[in-house]
Amino acid sequence: MSMISRDVIAAENAKREGALKSDYAHLGEQLARRGIDIDAVKRKVAAYAVAVPSWGVGTGGTRFARFPGAGEPRNIFDKLEDCAVIHELTRATPTVSLHIPWDKVADLGALKEMGAGLGLGFDAMNSNTFSDAPGQEHSYKYGSLSHADAATRQQAVEHNIECIEIGRKLGSKALTVWIGDGTNFPGQADFTRSFERYLDAMKAIYQNLPDDWRIFSEHKMYEPAFYSTVVQDWGTNYLIARELGDKAYCLVDLGHHAPNVNIEMIVARLIQFGKLGGFHFNDSKYGDDDLDTGSIDPYRLFLVFNELVNAEERKAEGFAPAHMLDQSHNVTDPIESLIRSATEVCRAYAQGLIVERAALAGYQDDNDALMASETLKTAFRTDVEPILAMARQEAGGAIDPVATYRAAGYRTKVANERPAIAGGGGGIV
Ligand code: LRH
Ligand code: MN
Ligand code: MN
């Protein structure tokens, strides 16, 4: 089943094919002068995939208000259709990452079947113990896995086990755990005891992890807690992964650090010590802004991918990070934002692949700071769009995915089918 007509994709591609061929040939010549085989880069890009977050296809919102768009997905089945649109056009997003209980998955068989029909699989499961589900016995107002009360911790553990069970039935192979636990005031909780309780709870979840699964803990500096957070940085995250065992890894959400933190270096460290589990890609200016990947600081995204390609090429032990987007869209059509974000990670990957690595190592050893830096800049400055577009087209996708999405009229179609949702104020003003 396809959500976007093959005829529309073919017609849109036909308009751009000629220009793409000559751009690709020209870039091929440029890269050949640097000793790089453009087709080899294209093959790697074509094999690259990033998961789409189910929660990303609906319009997000802020603490102040939410302004829903037309044709908002009503349920997980609608969300899956929107995710399929992104994959059909980009050919880079074959899996969806679910969030429980935001995604109400009463009929798992039907969901799996629908995914298969759309050519979509299921990526890491995300648990949610940072908000209360209707009717739940114990509140997470004062924490979940690190809560002072054992029954509340147990409830949070059981929720995570349930997420594993759901994921097993869908073919997922990983669980991502992010908790909002922390405090707003000095003295509100004991740092050490909170972390001990968290570790014990995570160990109980870990015991229920199937052998072929991985568990990712996700750190975040602050928010919703504003004074201290239990899993606040990569150091704590690394300790967690070490304490839990071989199936436990650290997840790096690009928006979860202080401004100016050297994230690519965190990535390198986690790779070096075999604990990089995966990413939540997004971009930010101030905090956990969840903006479109690569929209604010594409150079930083490139530097992260530079580390990833470096690890891939030197075959770093145990290196197999999961790639996922994690964004919130307030002023754009979420499908368009996710399309361009998926292409942005492909772009950063392609740019990472064309770094002249042997030359770079030479400059580093010679302490030639300027040429080392220029080597990275040369790769970053190269417009690799023809590689991405060619890879998409050859895989049946669109040369220009956003233009093709608009030409297909998908948003108008679903706006007619799905009832409009009222906007609303946030929790505070
Ligand atoms: C927390 C977070 C985490 C959640 C998602 C909705 O800020 O990044 O990954 O699951 O947002
Ligand atoms: Mn995240
Ligand atoms: Mn976040």
From TrEMBL:
One of its GO terms (molecular function) is isomerase activity. Keywords: Isomerase, Manganese, Metal-binding. It comes from the Bacteria. InterPro entries: L-rhamnose_isomerase (IPR050337), L_rhamnose_iso (IPR013451), Xyl_isomerase-like_sf (IPR036237). Gene3D superfamilies: Divalent-metal-dependent TIM barrel enzymes (3.20.20.150). PANTHER family: L-RHAMNOSE ISOMERASE. This is L-rhamnose isomerase/sugar isomerase. It comes from Rhizobium subbaraonis.
